[in-house]
Amino acid sequence: MVTVRLAAEATLARAMEELGLPEEEVDTGYGLVAIDPARGLYVLRVTEAGARRVDPEAGGGPHADPPIEPYGPPR
Amino acid sequence: MRVLIQLRPSPDVVAAVADPRRTAAAADVADGLPGVVLDPSFTPVAVPRPVPPAGGDPLSLRRPVRFSLAAEDASVLVRGEISDDEAAVRLALLPTLRPDVTGVFADPVIESTLTCGGDPPVGDWHDVARLLAVEELAGEGLDGAGVALAVLDTGINAAHVARHLGREFTLDAARSWNPAGVTGKPGEFEVDHGTMCAFDTLIAAPKATLIDIPVLLSRRPGGSAVDGLLSDAVAAFAHLRTVLDAQPEESRALVVSNSWGSFSPRWDFPVGSPGNYSDNPAHPFNLIVAGLEAAGADVLFAAGNCGRDCRDGRCAFPDRPIVGANSHPRVLSVGGVDTRGERVGYSSQGPGRLEDRKPDLCAYTHFSGSKAFGADRPDSGTSAACPVAAGLVAAVRTRWPASRLSPAQLRTLLRRTADDRSTVGFDHDYGYGVVDPRGILAALRRRSEA
Question: Which residue of A has its CA nearest to B387?
């Protein structure tokens, strides 16, 4: 995951432009998800290569996206 | 360390201790023992003296021995505590300083065998309902009516829940949500873990409105049949934020039950890295959890099944297994106890990684309930404890929306009223204790009157 701050016009296209990421490196099905809309903080799911290419000035991350599993029944 | 101290006080004191019609206090027997904090709750016990036949060994277990409780023969046991730092010195000095002390013995903790995964159910969901004082809660109008309760899991099979509950319940399809790529309708998913969780929420909050969020059904390459990605949970929480924001501010009531987590650091960045999840409050998921709570939602997470006594085989964190949002200071981390009130051996122990004082408290698990995994198999794991606690929170929210009792205040109330299972308040096995609905009701009544 990478985060991006968008002051206005919070769209996936705007976020990709801001981060300099092409469509093939972004999970467009996941889209642009608001973490803290009041502060204009959003997150995208991107490929590992895409995450590495993000300009640190433009976005935050990459952030871990580990698998999550149910806590039961205990095995 | 806790110790048992054997003394031979004057015969009249021994006689008073040995006489069941009289009551002697620890201070009557052993007042002023240097370096010992006597336990006043422990009633002194008279210990008979073995009297062998002439020439016999008084400690023989094979020869006939008579035991005398006569005042001039018997001794008395009291219980106390000696500072761990001074134990060796005190143990050596006590008989010298106090000639009436005849022995100092260890008083180890004795425990029953803890319930582990694979063990049969301990009680059933009716026992849990009784322990949660569901009738009393309902009598005070706390039944979850009008409260939204989101179950983030593998999806709910509503027909199975209703059949095993013996009644219908409300599931709000409009506010339910699927992660990208997950098909299936709310309430119509296969019977699995999420169905168990849904059932367990409804024990204490029978009239709550369930929101079905099958976040664990998303797939990743190489993933197991039932797991998702944390990014799906981020998106789910973003959806729940819209659900919460749509509620009138004065009556906000959204409870979020999460019986899942990350078992392994394998897919995480190292601790200390800016992208790390397990130990990093600035990770996007930890941020969105905090944001939802700040907006008025009650967020509960299972503490996990990595307890030292019988941990789940998937547990791969070498220590401190309550990680990431499951240990977030703004959530309730829920450990598990069986219906006897004993911690189940797999319930993860603290400290947590984002907040030391985890788990916050414990709720009931390992009981026969939803039968989601088969007729003989219990609702188990801290997976069951979390929705049980979430139901209790939803019940409270019926009359106490976030505008009246903030999520932080409610967490404090739950911790403060929990039935403490240790001698020192908080501990890393039970947290502040086991949820105590009667304590909660009393606290709410006091708050109403204030």
Answer: A71
